[in-house]
Amino acid sequence: MRSLPLIIALLLPGVAAAQEATCGGNFSAFVSGLKDEAVAMGHDAATVDAFLSGVRLDQRVMERDRGQGIFQTPFIDFSRKLISQDRLDRGRGLAERWDEVFTRIESDYGIARGVLLAFWAFETDYGTFQGDFNTLNALVTLAHDCRRPEIFRPQIFAALELYERGDFDPSRTTGAWAGEIGQVQMLPKDILENGMDGDGDGHVLLKTSAPDALVSGAKMLASLGWRYGEPWLQEVVLPANLDWSLTGLETTMTVAEWERLGVAAREGALDDGRLEASILLPQGRGGPAFMAYPNFRVYFEWNQSFVYVTTAAYFATRLEGAPVYDAGNPNPGLSGDQMKRLQTALAGRGYDVGAIDGILGAGTRAAVRDMQAQLGLPADGWPTQDLLNRL
């Protein structure tokens, strides 16, 4: 499912040239530059030549990179598309099948099995489709493109190191269009840093071994800051008189402070009152409401799409036994073109909304919330036609 690159700690330490490397231009010259840089880093010239000998530009990768319209879909629609009874049933079945592995992960890393099951489901449909793009071609294509070369160029050299270890085949290793490999889709640098032999066979095989993939994914989440044994997301019920400007990831208070404002768990009880948390309204005050704990923020180290992250975190709670969320009756949102108009208007007023892409990301939500407060509207961060008209 992955339509957005894993945005994680991607830069090779100590290789300043990778941050300033050229991009674009003649592709052959670009590849020659990669070879020179690899040799300068200490790699054997003949090995580098063999590694890059058949690399080519993949136009399909460019098309996929520029066609991520799915992330314009609102949370309710997006989550209903991705979460089915079949996926729930298969996830619970796999939790039983690999119970020993998940139990070990829960003990070693404090990560609930639902969290990894949700990633496994969304990334590769539990390993059934891991992508058919040549990984090296994908990485070099995206590094050659000048949109995010600082992300992908270091991954080429990480793949080269895997090749030197015998764990990467330039002509046969395949995966997602953005260069991720295996059942939970990890980039080469993450495999180097977090790859684990989960089944004890002496190898790290993320494409064919579910235990290897799951334990490696757990180690990566831990390295990204996952807090042992803590929750990540919980559906809540909000009082009608809540100050909506307090919602959003920009504001954190303790669970106890939220409770004093009238926030309650929809089912069961809220977690430790000392934990910091934010109130998340994916589609404004009329839609579902969640309490986002510190671990929820780790999801953004895995993927930066708000709608993907929220859906993955929610699905993890479903796999852990939570009920279907109360969809409520949210105010109709904006179309992609309307969202672009809104982003343009907000940017013109000095707000940092990132790219004008029609996607309601964190920057746009924060700007909407601030603008709503200035205009005397409920500041819930959900853009409406009324707000667009006023702007």
UniProtKB/TrEMBL annotation:
Top-level taxon of origin: Bacteria
Record key words, sorted: Signal
Residue intervals passing through the bilayer: none
Protein name: Lytic murein transglycosylase
GO biological process, one term: peptidoglycan catabolic process
Signal peptide positions on this chain: 1-18
Domain Peptidoglycan binding-like residues, every copy: 335-391
Entry annotated with the keyword Repressor: no
A GO term for molecular function: peptidoglycan lytic transglycosylase activity
Lineage: Bacteria, Pseudomonadati, Pseudomonadota, Alphaproteobacteria, Rhodobacterales
UniProt cross-references to SUPFAM superfamilies, sorted A to Z: Lysozyme-like (SSF53955), PGBD-like (SSF47090)
UniProt keyword annotation of Coiled coil present: no
Domain Transglycosylase SLT: 27-316
PANTHER family reported in the protein's UniProt record: LYTIC MUREIN TRANSGLYCOSYLASE (PTHR30163:SF8), MEMBRANE-BOUND LYTIC MUREIN TRANSGLYCOSYLASE B (PTHR30163)
